[in-house]
Design a protein that fits this description.
Layout: E1 3-7, H1 16-29, E2 34-38, H2 44-48, H3 60-65, H4 74-77, E3 79-80, E4 85-88, H5 97-100, H6 110-115, E5 124-128, H7 135-143, E6 146-152, H8 155-175, E7 180-187, H9 193-205, H10 220-226, H11 231-234, H12 240-254, H13 260-282, E8 295-296, E9 300-306, E10 313-317, E11 331-332, E12 337-343, E13 349-356, E14 359-361, E15 369-371, E16 377-382
Parallel strand pairs: 1-5, 1-6, 2-4, 2-5, 6-7
Antiparallel strand pairs: 3-4, 8-9, 9-12, 10-13, 11-12, 13-14, 13-16, 15-16
């Protein structure tokens, strides 16, 4: 069954087209059959795969502007990039489509209808969208079942995600079209504190929706695009850029390994196992020689400390936006211990601290730490 993934963000300069090109090429590199549809009138995805858009005899404009029966199909305009990667190119003529189709019924579903005849030919169909929320982007969102939102480390990009997700919500409410969405840090600069803080903030706000793999900023990706090649062809397989996209492609493939039904049963079984263990732990005095705390479970983490003198203990971290409230309070167990189970999403790193009678403390049971902005250290757990 083909997976159709739109790559969209109405904010320009977030690496959207670079993601489209290199995710498609990396999936193809891993022997997946892939079609990249260039739906941006700038034609940068086409240029980035070596297509001379000035010499196009037909492109996506001709496919979408044709008659209902599809005078020119996607198959007619497809360029073969290699054995596993095809391109449906475009050029600036696509700018005229919205005016041409003004007022026509069903114009938002044109792309979805054009994809149907060729859907079974590919395992993945990637759609590169224009940097706006116009007709072309809505066509892509309605044709896709999944959405990846490239995200650069800026507050404007953070706000842009919210605007795009408002449109996703509208599509679901008004047309019953559900999109699974994921956020990708596409131009990540790990050396800056701002980027790291924005990553933390995004993970907290969009819990479970931020992809684990990040694309680190490097000029090599621009060099590859300038030569009309994806990173899989242009650079050494040991380069950071190649590894980033190779791992991203692997993560994307794993996103749909289980159907929703299988996921429900899988998580139910894991939660039952966790519940049995939690029930056992709740009944006993904390035994730090028997259990390694914090205790990682399939559905979350069991945090615990031993402190007979404490009167009040809280835990704060990335998972609760570092806020002290009733939900952050640990439970006294009557044996001098304090404990709390927190449901957390897998595949993510969380920083945290205990607050013991108002004093912020690292978790001395957890040797993994990283420097905090105030000069102290945060405890870190990665699931």
């Amino acid at each position: 069954m083909s997976r159709i993934i739109a790559i969209a963000n109405q904010k320009g300069g977030c690496g959207k087209t670079t993601v489209s090109i290199n995710l498609a090429a990396s999936l193809a590199f891993q022997n997946q059959s892939v079609l990249l549809i260039d739906l941006d009138p700038q034609g940068h995805a086409s240029l980035g795969l070596g297509c001379d858009i000035e010499k196009l005899e037909a492109g996506m404009y001709d496919v979408l502007a044709g008659k209902k029966d599809g005078t020119i199909s996607i198959a007619h305009i497809t360029h073969k990039i290699n054995d596993t990667l095809d391109l449906a190119p475009t050029n600036s003529s696509l700018n005229a489509l919205e005016e041409l189709l003004a007022g026509k019924a069903g114009r938002e579903f044109l792309l979805k209808n054009r994809i149907k005849p060729i859907k079974k030919l590919y395992e993945y169909i990637i759609i590169d969208c224009p940097p706006n929320l116009g007709l072309l982007t809505f066509n892509a969102l309605l044709a896709a079942e999944e959405l990846i939102i490239p995200f650069e480390s800026s507050l404007f990009s953070f706000q842009g995600v919210g605007k795009l997700l408002e449109s996703v919500t509208s599509l679901k409410e008004e047309l019953g079209h559900k999109l699974d969405y994921y956020i990708l840090f596409s131009m990540f600069e790990n050396r800056t504190r701002f980027s790291r803080e924005l990553l933390r903030k995004t993970i907290v706000k969009y819990k479970g929706k931020v992809l684990n793999n990040k694309i680190n900023y490097t000029v090599k990706l621009k060099e590859a695009a300038g030569k009309g090649k994806p990173i899989t062809c242009y650079r050494s397989k040991e380069s950071t850029a190649f590894k980033d996209y190779y791992n991203l492609a692997r993560e994307v493939q794993k996103l749909k390994i289980l159907s929703n039904v299988h996921k429900d049963f899988y998580h139910m079984a894991r939660e039952i196992q966790d519940l049995k263990m939690l029930t056992s732990i709740h009944k006993m005095k904390l035994d730090f020689s028997k259990f390694q705390f914090p205790l990682k479970l399939e559905s979350g983490v069991y945090f615990a400390i031993q402190n007979e003198k404490a009167a009040d203990v809280h835990i704060v971290g990335d998972f609760n936006n570092w806020e002290v409230n009733g939900e952050s309070k640990l439970n006294a167990d009557g044996f001098g211990g304090w404990r709390k189970y927190i449901s957390l999403s897998p595949g993510t790193k969380y920083r945290y601290k205990f607050i013991i009678d108002g004093e912020w403390k690292e978790d001395h049971n957890n040797p993994t730490q990283e420097p905090s902005t105030d000069g102290s250290f945060n405890s870190v757990i990665e699931l």
